[in-house]
Amino acid sequence: MEVVALVPDREHVSARYRVAQYARHLEASGFRLRMEPLAEGAVARWRQFCRPRHDQIVLLQRKLLPLWQLLLLRKSTRALIYDFDDAVFFRDSYHRRGPHSLTRAIRFRATVNVADQILAGNSYLAATAGRLSSPEKVTVVPTCVDPSRYGMASHEHRGPACLVWIGSASTLKALNRSKPILERIGASFPGTILRVICDTFPEFEHLRVEQQPWSSATETAQLRSADIGISMLPDDLWSRGKCGLKVLQYMAAGLPVIASPVGVHREIIGQGTGFLPTCEQEWVDHLSELIDNRDLRGAMGREGRQRIEQSFNVDAWGPVIVERVKEAASHQ
């Protein structure tokens, strides 16, 4: 049986980490995964959703469709799975109109009600979906990584420390808002580098920024050759739905992590794997401690890698995905 994943784009980060990397698990269980980008425009979308899919399971990834499109899709397919890894029922942290959106709320309620199975990226998202639909059809499936793709950071070089931040332009605002922290670090530790893996880059007065355009071919090498991973988030409704991919990637590469104590960060970063500073001074103190202590960086990095292998490994969660697909396939 074919599983058709309707995704914003095949290269979208959520499509890669929450759909594509489970293809081999599905295929081993007799399901064939096909990624299909959502058509653009109402007419093209109508044609896409009118196509009979009664021998297919459709996995709708993240998108909140207008009600007529959602009902058309649901009518045309054998079963519908909805997967989401953001608080899509809110606007993002920096939207000029604030977080609350009636349109998003209505579409989200409709989506989780017509879906046969719901895959939520964290417990906060799952609880929200469960309140609006049937809790028994909601499963928490954390965003995972494949540790085999990541070599371990050695933490053996004795030169200036290299901090690393990876993300999209839309999340760079949180890094820019942490400029006072990073400027203090740059002034206190001359030569310290901030490696930014993105498609746009910040500028600092006292901290050298190493610009690394993102590429799937080079991201793991750029991570494991750094020393400390950082992730800043504002504490708001949108950020509480984030699934912590940055942190997971840092830990998979054997880096200690310093991250805002927001949402899933508190669940991922356990004792001995990193720090969760609550104010500017704590950020500066923890960054200073790790910059000064190469052995501590190595020990925390090893603990973090072990945590990824045990709890956020794609091979550990692949069977869960398969079971939910099987349940959807049994829908009549």
Overview of the molecule:
The chain has 332 residues and is an alpha/beta fold. 40% of the residues lie in helices and 19% in strands. The strands form two sheets. It has a six-stranded parallel sheet with strand order 2-1-3-4-5-6, with helices on both faces. Helix 6 links the parallel strand 5 and strand 6. 41% of the residues are buried.
| Widest beta sheet: strand line-up | 2-1-3-4-5-6
Tally of domains: 2
Shape: globular
Number of helices: 14
By CATH reckoning, the class of the largest domain would read: Alpha Beta
Annotated CATH architecture of the largest domain: 3-Layer(aba) Sandwich
Classified in CATH, the superfamily of the largest domain is Glycogen Phosphorylase B
Q: From the alpha carbons, calculate the radius of gyration and give it in angstroms.
A: 21 Å
Low-confidence stretches: none
Might you state the CATH topology name of the largest domain? Answer: Rossmann fold
Order of helices and strands: EHHEHEHEHEHEEHHEEHEHEHEHHH
Report the helical percentage.
40-55%
Mean pLDDT, rounded to whole units?
Answer: 96
Query: What class do helices, strands and sheet pairing give?
Result: alpha/beta
The number of distinct β-strands equals: 12
Please outline the major beta sheet: 6 strands, parallel
Percent of residues in beta strands?
A: 15-25%
Distance between the termini: 15 Å
